[in-house]
Amino acid sequence: MIQIPYLLFLGDAPDQLAAKVAQGIRDWRPDNAVGQFRMAGCGADVKLPDMDLAAAQAAGAKTLVVGVANRGGIISKDWKKVLVAALEDGFDLASGLHNLLRDEPDLVAVAEATGRALHDVRVPEEQYPIANGVKRSGKRCLAVGTDCSVGKMYTGLAMDAEMKRRGQKSTFRATGQTGILITGNGVPLDAVVADFMAGAVEWLTPDNDADHWDHIEGQGSLFHVSYSGVTMALIHGGQPDALILSHEPTRPHMRGLPGYDLPSLERLRDTALPLARIANPACQVVGISINTAAMGEDEALSYLEATEKRMGLPAVDPFRQGAARLADALDAI
Amino acid sequence: MIQIPYLLFLGDAPDQLAAKVAQGIRDWRPDNAVGQFRMAGCGADVKLPDMDLAAAQAAGAKTLVVGVANRGGIISKDWKKVLVAALEDGFDLASGLHNLLRDEPDLVAVAEATGRALHDVRVPEEQYPIANGVKRSGKRCLAVGTDCSVGKMYTGLAMDAEMKRRGQKSTFRATGQTGILITGNGVPLDAVVADFMAGAVEWLTPDNDADHWDHIEGQGSLFHVSYSGVTMALIHGGQPDALILSHEPTRPHMRGLPGYDLPSLERLRDTALPLARIANPACQVVGISINTAAMGEDEALSYLEATEKRMGLPAVDPFRQGAARLADALDAI
Q: How much is the pTM?
């Protein structure tokens, strides 16, 4: 559990894209961040007040979150000055970088001396149980994709936001580093040991009120041979009541796998649903989430319309259109 | 890679069942073990010459393998005396126990002082890659089960032994601790980090001669919600050309999961084959392996006959009948 609120560290981000973790926090949990910390030459701006450490502390910030990707995979000396000063001023640090905070001896030494925490959200902080398959109360929705990186996290966050807006009981359950930094907690599922994957998902989505929805962040794809085991564990550990099919229509082949075609939405449905019903016989496919970012407006809308007609399910791009119709679909079951 | 040959440590095993790892080595790789080491009161006997450390060393043994389950989950003082003496005499140690050799400070200290290796086969010794899905040369067979612990390892070992007996090119590829101790190497798949599971299976079953068969040890079941992700990674990382369906007909529910029924063999076939064809479009289901240990001879034979007729595939119990007909089925594709 990462302490909120955050000060978002944008460092010397060369451009806006490099700060996408900070942008995600700004978009989805604006109340979790009091401001942004930008170094000289920073090319990103997530439209939060610029603050130094003292100002952020006065505003109540508890954790400095590295909201930027680092160049060349190393934590630079310039960054270190800020990170060390933050620890000394009483901030915890949180990061989803590949190179871990805990692998930097100077940060470890200062954190120990000051009694602050270093959160590397790529590394599990819990000892998860083995899944027991026992039916849990409350409801759960999981997005499953034709491929990796087709908008499953975005879909879950958008549905959660929509249900909260309606005053419904809803929680986004993060399973990847960006989602964990956005919400402050979750399970870094791709870093969990095989035997405990499904148990980690059970742990993440415990018994809840009968009318509460967990929106579980999807990972990988049943059709992506590198990561399909992770997807399988989400389907069986998550016991979803509802599946959303996620797809990106313009991709030439499975991400990182030349020679592997994407499946059709029909094939995804017919593969995922019987597997999901092993853990939850009542599971239904309720809607389709299409990432149309690479399409023009007209092309996108006609693709969505044709998909909706073909599949007999609401088909929306939650980025263009919001997630209201997907939330409606959950209300209907 | 564990150095062979072994001296098998049976310790103070209360009965034969407690020494099943040693029995597995004795059954499947008798040339890998020069003898057995039994302490006072040992109730197990795997019918190898009884040897002390000096005799085993004279016979060429390189590694003392813990071939017995320990009582109460601790490595006792009596065992320690033998293990320490073995290290001091120049043996490596290998174990599949839950409590690790490397977590015992005295064993670590002696191993360091003597330059010997401690192999805990539950813990990966490699940094595996992420799977790339590239088609590999050679052929691969994987047993998939209706449930865990239905005889998948036995089936793979029996098919490998049969093909070797026929002079064919064949390798058993271990994915669990017992299989690793039997063969001296493999991947402890249930202990691999999620992102690297399928890559570990690719690593384990590399390019090979066109007429070489890998018999990949199966794990879990697509229908076992605790471990289905591990099974999925075997199916996609293994790129099997042939699947064997494995089943135990008398089980009342999925192992450890009351309330979960076992699937039929038809459902297993119809679930596993389309998933396998994502990674290898040529994959076929070639045979059925039934564990009839809980059935009488007549009952077993009539069950096998009925299953064979119903499924249109050779159905055998490799323990009762040998794996010849399953090996024939591989020859036919």
A: 0.95
